[in-house]
Structures are given as structure tokens and as C-alpha cells.
Amino acid sequence: MSQDYRTMWKNLGLDLTAHDALLSVLGQAYGDIYVSQKDRPAGMGYFDFVMSEVHGLRIKELLDEKAAGRKIIGSYCVFVPEEIALAANATLVGLCAGADFAVDEVHRYLPRNTCALIKSTFGFKLGKVCPFLEASDMIVGENTCDGKKKSYEILGKLVKNLYVMDMPQMKSPEGRELLKAEYVKFMEAAEKLTGVKVTVESLKAGIAAVNAKRAALHRLAALRAADPAPVSGLDSLLANQVSFYDNPARFTASVNALCDELEKRIAAGQGVRPKGAPRLLLSGCPMAVPNWKVPAIVESLGAVIVGEELCTGERGVRNLVDDSAKTLDGLLEALVDRYFKIDCAVFTPNPERLAHVEEMAKAYKADGVLHYGLSFCTPYSMEAAPAAEALSKKGIPALCLETDYATDDMGQLKTRIEAFLEKIRA
Ligand code: SF4
Ligand code: SF4
Question: What pTM was estimated for this model as a whole?
Fold first, then answer.
């Protein structure tokens, strides 16, 4: 890394020694898990580059944007509408973290039985290793699960710019009204932060940029229905993960270029696994960078992941926003229409999620579903067993896994996934 980056990180308040250690572990894991894959599409080179510069060039770009008067908003949930941030002259970045860090210190603030995603958020703040978080002018939390909403009470004391958005719990007319009121409040907060009023034109432009990004990811998802699968689940997950950090227009162009290449691969019958290799769908908790543990195990066993029913996957990008309204209120209504369909397990009841898992398994020709739950995540754990039972009744084998970010259960996970694949192969 250049000296410029080190100065930049220091100015952001990062702990350079701890940050060096994180980058070294991340680089090693990336090499072992990603670069070692065989028959990768050339288009993944762009994502390799983004990952190699995720704390370097991308942060420099964000700081340049700030110097030019733009603001950076960090978020932890796909319910935070990027369209509104863009319309208010802000850039939205995902802050969810997928690795354990400063664990002992985290346990001074959070109970041990907190999910790894939340602990990681705190670890990255307490360990001073996340330049995205430190570069954010406003951090948006949301009242989704109990773990998150209570942890924001504590996080609010560690960061100076936390904004908490309330969230409905039920898909009722009152729930929809609450979401709309919260989006209006968030728009006002973003306007106050940037000093820029959202207009019909700017919101339409924000919607167009995010729709294009989602449409590119829909295209990528659809191509994975081919057998042999033209791209690995690991690489597809990476593209989804990068969507939370990258410049939206550049990201969209890069995913579309990858899809052009995948179409040629499909026409030539070229895949990352032989035709007929076991195909699995992942469903459950989000997988933030660098949480690649389960997909890496699955694909090291000769299977291929063909879809992710995750917030870092189809749950996060399903449906586009209708941009035909001519008024600001009409566009906000359209935004709420789209976001209110997200079937996060924090909603009760939540039958749409199971329906989507079944739809995806069929669309991507999955032979089975892996339900992925983070330990101590009550919403997704509660939905796991009923989902597996319902899928089995429809002839779709399902395996429920519960894990965290540690590596000590990898052997056990491998054994269970191997047995599941044997069952599928038989
Ligand atoms: S799982 Fe729920 S709370 Fe978590 S990012 Fe997704 S929508 Fe938000
Ligand atoms: S993984 Fe579960 S417990 Fe953790 S933040 Fe998401 S919904 Fe909450």
C-alpha cells in the first residue's frame, strides 16, 4: 500500500497496526478462497481489483467526493433507501462487517450471545479498522431485530453521527404508513446533512441509478440458472457484496460486462463445475465481506451455489422502483412499494420469504437448500426449521446450518455439508 493511503488511514483515525493485521488476513483469505478458483470468468478481474483497493482507492474516491461537497452515509440494512441518499447528494455505503475483530473489547459492550454481524460492527469500530465507518458523515441504524436496535443505543455513544430509523414489524397498512413516514424523515435528515433539497428530478435520477444496479444483478442471477453454472456462487456473492461499496454506475457497467461474458460461456457450454454437479441455494442471514466461510466449503466439495436468498443476494435486490410518478410524494410511494416487499425475518408473519425460497429453488434448478443462520440470530433461527420442513414436503431437501465468523467449526460444517451432498447425489 502506498504511503498516501497510510496517511489517509491515519487521518481517518485508524489504528494502523491493527488495520495492517486485518488487511493481511483479508488478503490471505482472498487469495486462498477466490484467486485459487479454477475457470473464473475474466470479468471477475474487476471485482478482484475492487477488493484489492477496497480500503485504498475506494476510500480515496469517497474522500475526494467529500472534498467536493458530497456527504457519505453509512448503513447496516437493505431497508435504507440508497435512492434518497443519492438524490440528496450523498453516497451510501454498506457498513456491515463479516469478520471478528477486537472480540474481548466487544464483549465489554455487548453480551456474548449477540450475533456475529452485530459484534463485528462493534469490533470494527472499537478496533479502529473500518475506513468506511470513519469516513461516514452520518451512520444510519434501523430498528429491525432486537439485537440491532438495542446495540444502536450503545453504538450511539461510540460514534457521533448515528441516525436511527424506526421500522414496522408487520406488513399491515399501518406498517406501510410507518415505513413511508420514516423514509420522509430520512429524506429530511439527509437534506439537512448535505444542505441539498431532494427534487422530483434528483429522486428520479437516484431511482434510475439504483434500478440499473439491481437490474444488472437480476441479469447475473438469471444466468446462473444454466447448467453447467457459468460462474461460481463465491464470485456471485462477491459481486453482491461489492454493490454495497462501489460507485453505482461503474458497478453496473462491470456486472453487465461480466454478464456479456457469461452469456458467451453458456452458449459454449462452459461452466465452473461439470454439468450435473450438485446445485445449492443459500438462504438466511446476510453474508458481509469477508464472510465467505460456508460458500467456500460448499464449493470446495464440488457443488455450486446457484442463488442466494440473502440480503447480500436476491432479498436485497429483488424488485425495481417504478419511476413513472410525476411528484415527489408519488416517487416516495413507489419507493415504499418496493422496499415494503423485502421479506426480512424480522417481520411477522413472513410467509413471502418461504415462497421466494421455493420460487428461487425452482428458477435456478437447485437440488437443495442450505439455510444459513448466524448463532443468536433469533429471527432467522426461528424461521429455519419450519422452512426446512415445508421445503422437504415439496421434495426440496434442506439443511439448516448455524454458525458464526470463527473458523473452529469448519470441519464440522464440512462433514454435514458433505453428507447433505451425498444425499443429493444419491
Ligand atoms: S436481514 Fe433484515 S435487518 Fe438484516 S440487512 Fe436484511 S433486511 Fe436488514
Ligand atoms: S443476523 Fe439476525 S440477529 Fe444479526 S443483525 Fe441480522 S437479523 Fe439481527
Answer: 0.97
Residue 176 has a CB neighbour count (10 Å cut-off) of 17
Question: 77: CA distance to ligand 1 center in Å?
Answer: 5
Nearest residue (by CA) to ligand 2, atom 8, is: 145
pLDDT in tens, 145-197: 999 999 999 999 999 899 999 999 999 999 999 999 999 999 999 999 999 99
Using CA positions, which residue lies closest to atom 2 of ligand 2? 377
- CB neighbourhood size of 5 (10 A): 16
| pLDDT, tens digit (0-9, with 9 covering 90-100), for 402-416 | 999 999 999 999 999
Ligand located closest to 402 CA: 2
* Ligand nearest to the CA of residue 119, numbered in listed order: 2
